[in-house]
Specification:
mainly alpha, 3 helices
């Protein structure tokens, strides 16, 4: 008889990483809204000087969070 094996647990991303990714996406969305829909209410509520920082910080945070998530997923897959 083959030895008993434990069933594989599905990989779940850590909550902190999902939160960082969501915050980056939110900042990126606000920056894009200020860029392409400057007459919208959220874009009017924020100072125009925040447009570029929101685009940069939001985009970099979003990309780095996805990169970290893919690295963690591949690392967890290799450990099995």
């Amino acid at each position: 008889m083959p030895p008993a094996t434990r069933p594989r647990q599905p990989w779940k991303p850590p909550m902190w990483l999902l939160l960082v990714d969501t915050l980056g996406l939110f900042a990126l969305g606000l920056g894009l809204m200020m860029q392409f829909a400057p007459e919208s209410a959220p874009a009017q509520a924020l100072p125009a000087a925040l447009r570029l920082p929101l685009l940069v910080v939001g985009g970099v945070t979003f990309v780095l969070a996805w990169y970290a998530m893919v690295r963690m997923l591949l690392s967890a897959r290799d450990r099995r």
